[in-house]
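Example A, followed by Example B.
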Amino acid sequence: MKTLSRTTTDETKSSRDAGVNVADLPSKDERGRATLPQVKEEDADEALKIVGETRTELKQTFSWFKIIYIILGAISLLVGMVVLIYLPDSPATAKFLTEEERIIAIERVRDNQTGTSNKTWKKEQFLEALKDPRSWLIVLATLLSANLIQHRRSVRIINKVDTSGSIPNGGLSAFTSKIIKSFGYTSRISLLLNVPKGAIAAATTLSLGYWSDKAGERMLPILASVGPTILGCAMLVGFDADREKFKVGCIIGMFLTATYGSGLSILYSWNASNIGGSTKRSTLNVLLMISFAAGNCVGGEIFLPQDAPGYIPGKIACLVLFSALAVVALLLRWVNLVFNKRKATALAEAIRVNGWTEEDVRQERDKAAFLDLTDGKNIFFVYMP
């Protein structure tokens, strides 16, 4: 209080010395208001009109849900650049490994017999890739997978065309909360019910991936992931006639479709563990990318606006495609087991003809591991069913 009084007295004295009447000076509140810009009411209305028009125009040209695709696309691009720059071509060129660690990594090739990286293009390996029936089976599996992934994107198209607001609740969808809402739940409950689906997907991916690695299996974990999804699709199709009455069944069916993602990741690892020879493996990688792109083009034609509001054909297509994928997975496993029996017979014949001892077999196996042989030419190669 003393400080404030002293300050006021000093200001009054200074004003009196300058010949200024203190009563004519604006108060502190008036000085604060004087610094604020004076906005006319018509100017404010015009500004709000411009903001509203801009927001409407932006909403018409740029849907808000596209933001998630931009974010994920940017992250994918960033990760791809990091991989391109820092991921080595082979363990032998990995700068982050010590000399001893490089040797250990290369020694793993002796076990899986897939061979080391070789940049020389070999015509015979290219032709073998085209003649291998397993190549076309895995291409078919990837084609089916891409179709199922495209179902998620097709929901966006339906949302824009179908003015009634009905969303197909069959098939896999990135807009799960909207689909759950169509069962009769509120927006908040729909978001909460979306959480278990993510938890199921994470749990199945970790557990089935661990099983696939430890058991040396590929197709059985894929079947284990596709099976519940087939059941979930069947429930979504069967309960579609009365979604309000069977909303719990629809929710359970939606949760069951979350198991499929783990099988997709295992499917992509099949090539690395079942194909030998650099050129053959590269050829199959190209075929897989082509089939994946083709599946994405075809998949958008499964859910069509004229099938609204039930979209029964699209949901049945999901069920059929998942079932077909399960059949292809079983066929791939059977073919690998048959080929393993042929390999065992050929190896036994080679041991008999050449008179190899156990040490000879070990040396020949180690030698074959670094010759860039295809799985068809390498009698020591064992397929992972």
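Example B, a separate protein, is given below in the same form.
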Amino acid sequence: MQRSALPQIAHINPLSSLISLGFRSISVRTLTVEPVEGDDPLYADVPKLPRTKSERKPYPTPMKVLIQRAKEEREARKAQPCQMLETPPENGLLVPELIDVAHQVYRARQLLLLGISKLVNVIPVQRCRYCFEVHIGSVGHEIRTCSGPKSGFRSATHVWQKGGAQDVIYFPKCYHLYDRVGKPRVVHDERHSVRRIPAILELCIQAGLDLKKYPTKRRTKPVYCIEGRVVDFESVAGKDEMKIVSDLDESQMETKLGTRSERVWNSVSFDNLTKTDNYTVREEANNLRELSIMTLETWFEIISGAKKIMEKYKVQTCGFCPEVQVGPKGHKVRMCKASKHQSRNGLHAWQEATLDDVIGPNYVWHVHDLHAPALDNNLKRYYGKAPAVVELCVQAGAPIPDQYRSMMRVDVVPPGRDEVDLVA
């Protein structure tokens, strides 16, 4: 009996050795996974790779805090069903200290677009033909991160073409609300009749900016909240007390841009850069550097101003797609095509928005030298990132901001292409 079992055991041993060898090979493959860029605590602020389509955006405010806040509001409504809202902007009034901030953000946005349109004529901008990747430089990088159509056939390699100012920064659009308190939602049947404008512009309008092209309702008395519903007694009293402000036109706003920065930008002309006159080249280079510095200042002015406004005025975003809506509630237009939209009947999964949802920074790879070879895919762990506006201004001569030095990995010297095998 033992002799008959020995050949079977001898026959099983090679098979078991092959199975163990296969498991060893599988375990080795799983251990050689490339480290994620955000694992290093020193460079935790470097933007990570885009999330999967089925993954929801993280909540800026923890869910436990939102649930606790909702419970407190519900208990307050039960204790006092009818109450007059006292704090702006929930009561329909403006926040006085944010009116000037809204005007500053609007002017800074115009100057930023003007500065970017002039800088892209000198600093080359590349964009991928199949995805939203952007690169600042004369030659596109070789980092394989393309997620466009048929990217697998190209090994995720980008196909570069010339880009423009619209690729450097983008402002997502939202529906313009005439009455953000009385009618905060846009229904599906109104999707073609209500205008869509940039979300940063709508945020400024709700905060106190008045434009003739986009009229909005301004109240002089606060609204009431009756069992969770907003009731406006001002409209019942009479339309004479309403104040629809449209005193300031865009043309009048542009006349106020006669500042030092606008005079410098209007005086910058890059037609003489091809001449051999050293004085002309030096003068144009100084103007280019000054233009980049002022453009970077307007970028920080927009960021700081929008952050202040968003602390008071609510902005909603979809948890699965880039849709944004400025206002206390999101719209009801069935236009979401992201993950699980069938279960929501095309409605968006609204949640609290962040600053990156309102102002698309469009992070790009940082290039230390525009005349150096293209960025290598094997060395991407040594490269940093920065918003495309910051990278464009830095390449034009502006100093690197302190808040982006770690993100751009300025203190890291990337090895050469021939030193890839020598680097640990």
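On Example B: Residues 1-39, 236-258, 270-276 have pLDDT under 50 and may be disordered.
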